[in-house]
Amino acid sequence: MQSIKTISKIAACALSISCAFGVQANQLEDIQKKGEITIGVDISAPPYGMLDDDAEQTGFDVDSARLLAKDLGVDLKIVPVTGPTRVQFLRTQKVDLIMASFSITDARKKVIDFSDPYGVVPVVVGGPADEVVDGPKDLAGKTIAVTRGTTSDKIITDSTKDVSDVTIKRYQDDATTNTAVMTGQQRYIVAASSVLPEIKKTNPNADVAYKYTAVSFPMGVGIRQNEPEFKARINKWVSTNLKNGELNEIYKKYFFGQSLPENMLK
Q1: In the chain, what is the straight-line distance between the N-terminal and C-terminal CA atoms, in Å?
Q2: Which domains occur in the chain, in start order?
Q3: What are the residue ranges of helices labelled H in 110-170?
Q4: Choosing a second label site near 110 at 20 to 30 A (CA), which of 1, 139, 160, 237?
């Protein structure tokens, strides 16, 4: 009698696990049946997500999410997220996917999954519009503003260590760094690409323009773990729209006419 009960419990457990994975594997089918996909986007992170002058959602991630929904043949519902809430909203099923300048990292991959990269998060150097600066060597004799202890700080420090007469002015937080450039106290800055348009938006007279990309971090679509069918479909969308140029055109629209890295477009 005991063995029958044990077998029954094992069978029930196996069925439960099977059903659970079946639901996960059919998330794409459920979305298509519902006719709507819910995607988390950070609307406060230009140029990935922002509001235009008419208070309409726009940006690289917004347009990419619209393209994905169109290709899946479903309506799009955008749910605003922030950097700290992206993983939480995905894991608690408040959204189906996350497209919010989501850099692919080993730490994040322990709790969620990612698609193949569909874009990059670039760290850029900005400076006066009429000065030619194409790389670190052209920063000789210049002072560059950066936020202390950030990735940008490390990148500019490492890339200019052999360049003569470079001064790196480190500020304690992003707001102070940006204000120094916005007010003309500093002429050069290294920061996330989203910083330059924000400086110009706050002070249209600020003489700061894109100069070059110091480094780019790959970013992917955030997906819940154990959803192989859904992940495969998203990866197919990424591959198709990188090869046909659709994602690159969206990227160029919001990133100073710059293209995605060549190795992503092959």
Answers
A1: 63
A2: 28-118+220-265 (3.40.190.10), 122-216 (3.40.190.10)
A3: 151-159
A4: 237
Q: How far does CA 75 lie from the centroid of its chain?
A: 22
Q: What percent of the chain has pLDDT over 70?
A: 91
| The two structure tokens encoding residue 23 | 């639901």
| Distance between CA atoms of residues 249 and 247, nearest Å | 5
> In this structure, are residues 117 and 220 in contact, taking their beta carbons and an 8 Å threshold?
yes
In angstroms, the Cα distances linking 35 to 29, 38, 40, 69, 93 are 10, 10, 17, 10, 17
Radius of gyration of the chain (CA): 22
How confident is the model at residue 1, as a pLDDT?
45
Residue with tokens 């690159």: 248
E strand or H helix at 143: strand 143-147
pLDDT digits (tens, 9 = 90+) for 190-209: 998 878 988 998 999 999 99
pLDDT in tens, 229-246: 999 999 999 999 999 999
> Residue 139 in contact with residue 160, Cβ under 8 Å?
yes
Nearest to 210 by CA among 200, 222, 225: 200
Distance CA 195, CA 199 (A): 6
Give the Cα separation of 209 and 255 in Å (integer).
Answer: 11
Complete DSSP assignment for 10-59: HHHHHHHHHHHHHHHHTHHHHHHHHTEEEEEE-TTBTTTBEE-TTS-EES
Distance CA 261, CA 266 (A): 10
User: Which residues lie across from 120 on neighbouring strands?
Assistant: 218
Number of residues written out for the chain: 266
Checking DSSP bridges between strand 119-127 and strand 143-147, what pairing results, if any?
Answer: unpaired
Amino acid identity of 79?
A: V
Nearest CA-CA partner of 97 in 67, 121, 124, 126:
67
Is residue 174 over pLDDT 90? no
